[in-house]
Amino acid sequence: MTDWIDIGTLADIPQRGARTVQIGDEKEIAVFRTGDDQIFALVNECPHKKGPLSQGIVHGHSVACPLHNWNIALKTGEAQGEDKGCTPTIAVKQEDGRILIARPELAKVAA
Amino acid sequence: MELQDGLSPVVDSGDDILVPMDDVREHLVVVGNGMAGCRAVEELLARDSVRYRVTIFGAEPHVNYNRIMLSPVLAGEKTFEDIIINDRAWYDDNGITLITSDPVTAIDRAAKTVTSQSGRTIGYDKLLIATGSDPFIIPVPGKDLPGVISFRDMKDVDSMLAAAEAGKSVGGGEAVVIGGGLLGLEAAHGLTLRGMKVTVLHIMPTLMERQLDEAAAWLLKNALEGRGQTILTGADTAEIYGEGKVEGVRLKDGTQIPASLVVMAVGIRPSVALAREAGLDVGRGIKVDDHMVTSDADVLAVGECVEHDGNVYGLVAPLWDMCRSLADGLTDRHTGYKGSVTSTKLKVAGLDVFSAGDFSGGEGCEDIVLRDASRGVYKRVVVKDDKIVGAVLYGDTADGGWYFDLLKRGENVSDIRDLLIFGQAFAQGGGALDPKAAVAALSDDAEICGCNGVSKGQVVACIEKGACSLDAVRAGCKASASCGSCTGLVENILSVVLGDDVQSGPKTMCKCTSFGHDDVRREIVAQDMRSIPEVMQKLHWSTPDGCSSCRPALNYYLLCALPGVYVDDQQSRFVNERMHANIQKDGTYSVVPRMWGGLTNPRELRAIADVVEKYDAPMVKVTGGQRLDIFGIKKEDLPAVWADLNAAGMVSGHAYGKSLRTVKTCVGSEWCRFGTQDSTGLGVKTERMTWGSWMPHKFKIAVSGCPRNCAEATIKDFGVVCVDSGYELHVGGNGGIHVRVTDLLCKVSTEQEALDYCAAFTQLYREEARYLERTAPWIERVGVDYVKQRIVEDDAGREALRARFLYSQSFSQDDPWAERAAGANTELHQHLDPISIAAE
Q1: Would you call B305 exposed, middle or buried from its count of C-beta atoms within 10 A (0-12, 13-18, 19+)?
Q2: Where does siroheme bind (chain B) (predicted)?
């Protein structure tokens, strides 16, 4: 069993944007690519009202939720500023142009 | 005396005073150019700027400066220029004659004149004594030796700086500060920073005993000793010794402390000699009534030199209260000074200290104490009969204002007693631990600036009147303009009131830039900038790629400035504009196809019905803009939905955009018995002309066929009301949270003119409104007269605006749905391949 799952290439994700990956029937993971080409993966739900973070505006290493403009730190999943809440994050890494996502953490958030 | 043109009202020592002979106003002479005297004049001018001719005598050679800030000057944190309150221009602008370096030495109340040291004698109608206080010099041998100074004015600071400079050649030099109160500790701190070895002598057992209890004083002493100062408490000075100049201090227990500088900072005494010699009623200070009038009705006194109702004050806040009452009295208002309750929030040598009320304890008093040794924090709140009667805070004074507010209001704190000591955020619940929330929770009458007696409500009012920076607030309501210890609070209020919302932050666009919207737009055009990264680079953005406030704004500004050239940045679009549909709370989308002028036909209705069934849309609703909204479409189905709608001839309704939404119409003259013109036909033509245009915000149009106005044209951004003789054009209406009825722009006689004016108005709004500013607030900001001037009165300008709009439209009327349906931007709609997390 491999601990890292290949989900695609950097070019699959728009810069300052996100794509989604479905795991199981219910959960969606948002995979973000920032302006400096770093990759982050979070559960695709804002801690506030579960807005799809993948559809937000990516700026710096944050994303603004499309529903009510909460800003979520991509690295920690923590809401920024006065808002309180946290979205689960999943470890990702880039290797040879491929994006790999950590299976055990994925299993945890999908459970 | 010779009269000159351009007579300068500022007179330096030695000059004659030149009085315009035709000035018959009452003459107010102020003795003392310090904080109280000048503030009294400021308050007076604010009430009546012309009633009195004002002359101010000052003993020092300077303009009015902030005496509280001498400590930072000594410490090297500020320069003298930084602490000037009123510069020469203020005296000039207000016609005030300032006589510096010339103290008043005598008052002749019978003749109503004052005489100065240099021999000037001038008459007064009203005299204001604001002589402040004198440093108390303890009567020990050697007190007059060169090198013994007080800490009261700029001259003292200069002496200390000179001593520190001279000490450099001998490894720093040694100084003794007599007095362990606020002033003494500030002097010691400054001298330490300037490199001197400092010993503080305090006669009492603990430092700052009037402001701090024993525990806090001990913490303070430890902290100061940690910085290299020697603190001797219970130290009684016997003599200052030296041959021709200071060489040291000897205590009564025989201890000798060598020093080249001795600063006496044991206290101040109201400066009353002048008043006493003039025969005024003097107790500890010059006795005054509630309007600061002395025992002579034409002589007033204010500040540290007065005694009101048995009290003498040495803090700045009461002085400001007095100045207000004094100015009220001088301008025939009768409010009256009622004494002040004071709190002390100080930075002592950079350490935060706060105290208020009575903390001496005693019968019926309960102490609530919090100590956090590792952080060096001590808090003590004294409660009596369920009310706060005193508080001492050391190390963390953030809640001082809140405790003082509860104290002054006599609030019953029994409900929050358990949490009281942890501060406002805890005690009032909500887990609101950040300072902004704490400030937001303060009541409007909570005092923010103790120095100037400014409440939160006054600061908020000042900000709402347009002050949007710290400096503007200082200028507007004086909050944070004296000692500056409330600067953090004021900044938090600024951010609570203004936020970083692009709409309400009138000065800067967002926190990424120091430029405002209008500046950015102007620079985009002036420097011919062509991309968001270029704007951020050239205008020094502080963030790598902006934020969700500025990116959409910049994208719009570039799009508007460079039609046909600028390539839209999808990632700088809000989700709805990127997806060309409206996101709903469950993450699905709603889809609104355009129905020109609200008209539809069987083919369109069939296509919509088919889409609803095919994609299992749970709801269809008729919108307020006369079209149909299909709800519950998944992002991956959107391109297929659009393809089906396109096939029936429909295009995007832009119900999701900062763009032209709909043109609402009534049936007009074709069917309606009241109709005066073909409102439906004009609506369709208007929508065909304007659809697809991006705007600063959403934009709605309506055309009503008669003044009954069934299409509600007078709450639209652009509304046409048809009348028998033509078309009334209305602008700037809004049916949202703040309903605003349109302003009448003008009346035109032909349909073509109505269209032309519509195009020109739309373009003016596109080019000049700020992003996310609807036409209603934009017109309120620029004035409808300005819009009329550009659209109605300037024929060539209107034609140019119309031409620019139509040129821009030639690039924007491609249906975005058709492009997506044909396969553009599939990544926005398709998931990456789903993955299974089961082990392989």
Answers
A1: buried
A2: 710
User: Which pLDDT score is estimated for B82?
Assistant: 87
What pLDDT score was predicted for residue B503? 32
The answer, yes or no, to whether residue B130 has pLDDT greater than 70, is yes
Gap from B697 CA to chain A (nearest CA, Å):
17
For chain B, the domains span 7-133+270-330, 148-266, 434-504, 517-572, 661-814
B334 vs A: CB within 8 A:
no
Q: HSE (CB half, 13 Å, CA atoms) of B686?
A: 35
pLDDT at B786: 95
Please tell me the pTM assigned to this model: 0.52
Q: Three-state DSSP class for B460?
A: helix
Residue carrying structure tokens 């012309």: B50
pLDDT band at B410 (very low <50, low <70, confident <90, very high): confident
Count how many pairs of residues, chain A against chain B, have C-beta atoms within 8 Å: 102
pLDDT higher for B725 or B463?
Answer: B725
Per-residue model confidence as pLDDT tens digits over B766-789: 999 999 999 999 999 899 999 999
Contact (CB, 8 A) for B43 and B324: yes
CATH code: domain B661-814 is 3.30.413.10
Q: Using CB atoms, pick whichever of B587, B828, B832 lies closest to residue A52.
A: B587
A57/B572 touch (CB, cutoff 8 Å), yes or no:
yes
Residue B570 near chain A (CB below 8 Å): yes
Q: How far apart are CA B202 and CA B263, in angstroms?
A: 12
Interface test with A, best of B531, B589, B837, B840 (most A CBs within 10 A): B837
| Among B413-422, B482-491, B590-599, the range of highest mean pLDDT | B590-599
Both tokens assigned to B556: 């719009």
DSSP conformational letter for B563: T
Could you tell me if B504 lies within 8 Å of chain A, comparing CB atoms?
A: no
Of the residues B541, B835, B836, the best mutation for testing chain A's interface (the one with the most A CB atoms within 10 Å of its CB) is B835
Q: For residue B6, is pLDDT > 50?
A: no
**Number of domains making up chain A:** 1
The domain B434-504 having CATH identifier 2.60.40.1120: the answer here is no
Domain B7-133+270-330 coded CATH 2.30.30.50:
no
Same fold, B7-133+270-330 and B148-266: yes
Please tell me the distance from the alpha carbon of residue B286 to that of residue B302, in angstroms, as a whole number.
9
| B6: contact with A, CB 8 A cutoff | no
Query: Would you call A111 an interface residue with chain B, using a CB distance cutoff of 8 Å?
Result: no
What token pair was written down for B244? 């021709």
Q: Quick check: B545 contacting A, CB < 8 Å?
A: yes
B710 appears as a binding residue in the annotation: yes
Q: Which residue of B has its CA nearest to A55?
A: B575
| Residue numbers in A near B552 (CB within 8 A) | 57
Are A71 and B437 inside 8 Å of each other by CB?
no
Quote the tokens at residue B837: 């997390």
pLDDT-wise least confident of A8-12, B680-684, B759-763: A8-12
